[in-house]
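Re: beginner question about structure tokens

> Can someone show what the tokenized structure looks like for a real chain? I only ever see the sequence side.

Sure, here's an example I had lying around. Input first:
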Amino acid sequence: MKKILGVLLFLISFHLNAGDVEKGLEAYYKDNFTTAFTLLKPFEQSGNDEVKFSLGYMYDMGEGTKQNKEKAFELYTKVCNNGNMKGSLNLGLMYYNGDSVKQSNEKAFELYNKACNGDESQGCYYVGVFYASGIGVKEDFNKAKLFFEKGSELGDDMAQHTLGIMYKNGFNGVKQDYKKAFELLQKSSAQGNEDSLYALGQMYQYGLGTEKDCKKAIDTFQLIKSNQYSGKLMHLGQLYSDKSCSLVNGKKAIEIFTMISKLNPSDNDLKVDIAFANYELGNLYNSGNLYKLTNIVSIDKNKALQHYLNCYKSENETIAKACKESLSALCNGNPSICK
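And the corresponding structure tokens:
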């Protein structure tokens, strides 16, 4: 009877413990890290590599517990040695960044390659980056492309994006192919990759690899939530002032270009955008008819003058030349406002 009771108690304990692990992993995948850590910590020494990896990640990121890179390294190493590919990937990141271990591009490459061989898509992307940049390995764009292709097929959004841009721009021995670029950028965009959304918006705007579609271009650019994309606003302004678009809207175009023109000019990355926005504003105020917007935009030669003056000294030679030519034409036709 005692033996039977002992077995029953063991089975009950086993099922309760298994329930905690299941609940802990469920909480982990829902980003409820505090609950996940509390439930999974008692099973750190178990043979469950998913538990060990999850704890390693939480130690690594400081989620649900105090950040502990040394502990993360220890747990990633254990699961990597057991064949866990995510562990191999994250261990590679630690070697690349020099987190709790001596920085080593060669070791990072080895671990990324191991992850890729185990069909961990992000590992393939990083191997491609290393080959493309010559990090920890001899530069080889052909091999880089092969790994980007494998990462893309496995569903990695950055591999899809990178390969898409290679086809879009046609560089490093890759023949330009807008159709392939469009397909890859669509896949990456579907995963929320904002770099791909930006490129995809351009392809809809200019009809690259697909039919020109102003509405889809606008919808795509508006999906970008990050504030870093002043270029997104620039394209939206162009679309709203494009006479070939059915959604042409002069008021929105002026609102957007004005917003860009008022950005901080001390940021070198924004100077070209600011200059171009002033050029576009000058054109809109100088001759709304140019965009068939006279019924929406009131022509104002003085405002046009001011915007041309704001851009004719741009560091970008193309914009500066265009602004100077427009300024000269404006003043020749309206000498009184240019005194």
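Each token stands for a local structural state, so reading them left to right follows the chain. Residues 5-16 have pLDDT under 50 and may be disordered.
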